[in-house]
Write a structure and sequence with these properties.
9 helices; Glutathione S-transferase Yfyf (Class Pi), Chain A, domain 2; binds glutathione; 4-stranded mixed β-sheet; 4 strands; 2 domains; alpha+beta; about 5% strand
Amino acid sequence: MPTLYRAHFSTNAERVALALAHKGVEVDSVVIEYSDRTPVLEASGQPLVPVLVEDDGTVVADSRRILRHLEATRPDPPLFPSEPSHRAGLDVFFEWFDEVWKGPPNAIADGASSEAEIAALSARMDGWQDVFEGLLGGSDHLLGEFSAADCLAFPFLKYGALTESPDDDGFHHALVDHLSLAGRPRLADWIERMDERPRA
Ligand SMILES: N[C@@H](CCC(=O)N[C@@H](CS)C(=O)NCC(=O)O)C(=O)O
């Protein structure tokens, strides 16, 4: 059975847990402590979770790479659209979410200096909530059918439904404080639907 290195409250590990369950893949879990990376360092040569180790010894680190690896090795049921233009749209979403969307909450968590700066970052996050509301206008999931896009975004966007963070991570606090569901009923429903999905 493959092994998944994970940690409590890890958003990026939850992405993989959702994808594994969708594909019906069972894993052994190694839950690391944030204060001791030894197990994941020894397995992968780097300290971050998630990491997936296959039975044949293949080691895949990074949630986006793991989702693509799962699709390549276990294509059924799919997580990525087969139609090329839809797949390209998902590729754009992957890049945008991690390289752009995560920027403002990371900047707030890293101690954006002034009130004005925080207000500007918060406004960007709030505006993007309308983008998700719009994406959900025509279907139950972000890009049509349930896909890797939903796995990628849900563990982060779900913080918009919380009134307090479950841990003391500054990034999670920034999400709770600056993601609003007010006036976004489709996004609120999607969070509820996604929350009911199984995880490995
Ligand atoms: N790009 C990586 C990021 C992995 C990552 O930042 N993992 C977090 C948990 S969600 C972690 O291990 N954080 C520990 C730390 O930064 O000290 C991915 O998508 O998997």
